[in-house]
Each structure stands twice: as structure tokens, then as C-alpha cells.
Amino acid sequence: MSGRLVHIGSAVVDYVYRIDALPEPGAEKTASSFAQVAGGGFNMMVAASRTGMKVVFGGQLGTGPNGDFLRAALAAEGITALTPASPVMDSGNCVAMISGDAERTFVSWPGAESVLSLDMMAPVRVAPGDWVFASGYTLSYSGSRDALGDWIEALPENIPFVFDPTPIVADIPRATLDRVLARTTWLSCNTTEAVEIAGSGDVEALAARLLSSHCPKAEGIIIRAGAKGCFVRLAGGGTRTVAGFKVDPIDTNGAGDTHIGAFVGALSRGVAAFEAARYANAAAALSVTRHGGSSAPTDAEIKTFLSHIAGPSTGADGRNRKAHA
């Protein structure tokens, strides 16, 4: 496979607490377990790497214990950080509370990943065959959105750009969002995010409107629908609902990121879009049967899973299942 995934996103440290249910206001809960793990954009990078892509990180890491933790996690997955560490701040963190029904509640604290400049991004260079990914989190930060928007707009036309608006899409200034959508080659979002961008409607109408009015250069739109799988619309007019796979989830954290990483990995190998979506559904389904946001399966595990099923059933993509249940 030629080329790389160049990830311009936000890697943070997740502090994960498992509890039976969220506490009432003013109440206290004791967690059944605690873990410190790499999270945020790290989850998508891991998914792409484990499905065969060479991945490099073009966001910013901090100087301090969180930054050190993330550098070690990236190195363990064979992912190179291209930019120098921030000399003035550490990487951010996110507190994740995982309840007994496998759903998640988050509280985030931005750090070095929220500050980008074109000078800082100078070492991030793309070459023919590369794919570039960015998320709405980085665009939501006032200290990074302008530089990232300029950098994305300057990408060569032959470089595919994949965008995930994420649950905080409403926090991105519309002018910034429009600039990025106009350069997007593949948009991957959930139903709630699609509605935020394009207004109300059924999934077919949303995908059509996203292509015609918001992503004029896109090759396709993929709208993830939690346990139902995803819907794909191609610029040429082809559409398909790609069903997921029936699993018993234990942790849905990172499943949407796994879906995107596996989808991009498959596309980069020349897999057709509808089959790449089915492959991504399988990756996400496997990921929710494991603990941790960076629980993406390998290419071999996905292929084994697909070889043992008769066909698609209901299943899980799930990063934001509460948002569109």
C-alpha cells in the first residue's frame, strides 16, 4: 500500500471510570474500575494502523506527563508524531464515565492539542498517495481553527481529505465549518451531526443535501446510525444502507473512531465504498465487545469475523449512540 494517513487531530489522555449508573446531582459513586489510556484522535489512528495503513500524527502534543504518556502510546502503535511538542503546556485530558449499559459521559479539558499554528505545522507535509484526516474537535478550538482551516484549504487537489464533524459540530463557527466541508472528499458523521449541518430530514435526504449543498467536492457521504450500521451515498448517485452486525456491547467508547479508521484504511487499499463500509461496520462491532476506546481490531480479525457470518444483521457503530438512539 502506498501513502499514509496524516492525522491532524487532537490526541488526549482519557481517565476512564466504570460505574453502574451516573450519580444524581450532589451524590457520589464509587467506580468499579479506573484506567488511564490514550484517547481522542488516538483511537482513529489506531484503527487505521491496525487495518494496514501507515499513520503519522500532525497535531500537537504537550510537554508534561500527559504529553509523555501520549508519545509513548503512539510509539507503541508505530505512529510517528511529526510536530514539536508545545514548550508551554501539557496535552489535555478527558474524564469518561462508562455506565452499566455501556454508554459514556465525558468531561474534557483542552491542552496543547487545542493550539495550532501554520509555523508549528510546517513539518507536516503530504505526498501523492497520502490521505488526510481532521475532526471537529480541533476546529472547535479558537486557538487552532484558523490555522487548520488554512492548511486544509491549501491541500493539493489530489490528496483525499476525510472529515468527522464529531458531537461538538455546533461549537464550530459556521464559516470555518463551511470552508472545511467544501474541501472534504469523504464526510463521516452520525445522524445528529448530519442534521446539525444540513437540517432535518430522513437519512437519504440528509446525505443528498450534504453532497449537493455542503460538500461539493466529496466522493461520498457516510452517515453512521449506531446499532443499525451506516448509510452511504456516492457523488455519482449510488446509495446503500449497510447493515451492522449483532453483538453484545460492553464498551462503546471509540467505536465511531474505529469505524472511520477502518473505512479509510479499506478505501486506501482500493476497496469499493460499500464494501469498505461493511468492513468498517465489522470493525466497530468488534471494538464494542472490548474494553477501551482504542480497542480496534486488526485487519486479520475483521476478515475472520466477516468469514464466520452468513450476512449482515443488526449491530453497533456506536461512538455517539445516545445522540441518535
Count of helical stretches: 10
Radius of gyration: 18 Å
The CATH class label is: Alpha Beta
**Helix residue percentage:** 25-40%
The overall strand count is: 13
Into how many domains do the coordinates divide? Answer: 1
Unreliable residue runs: 311-325
Structural class: alpha/beta
Mean pLDDT across all amino acids:
91
End-to-end Cα distance, whole Å, is: 37 Å
Protein name: Putative kinase
Domain Carbohydrate kinase PfkB: 5-295
GO molecular function: kinase activity
Organism: Mesorhizobium metallidurans STM 2683
Describe the structure.
Helix content is 32%, strand content 21%. With 325 residues, it is an alpha/beta fold. It has ten helices and 13 strands. The relative contact order is 0.15. The chain has a single domain, classed as UDP-N-acetylmuramoyl-L-alanine:D-glutamate ligase (3-Layer(aba) Sandwich). The protein has helices at 41-50, 65-76, 136-140, 145-153, 174-183, 191-198, 203-214, 255-268, 273-287, 299-307, and strands at 4-8, 11-18, 33-40, 54-57, 80-81, 93-98, 104-109, 131-135, 161-164, 186-190, 220-224, 230-234, 239-242. Helix 6 crosses helix 7. It is globular, with a radius of gyration of 18 Å. The N and C termini lie far apart (37 Å).
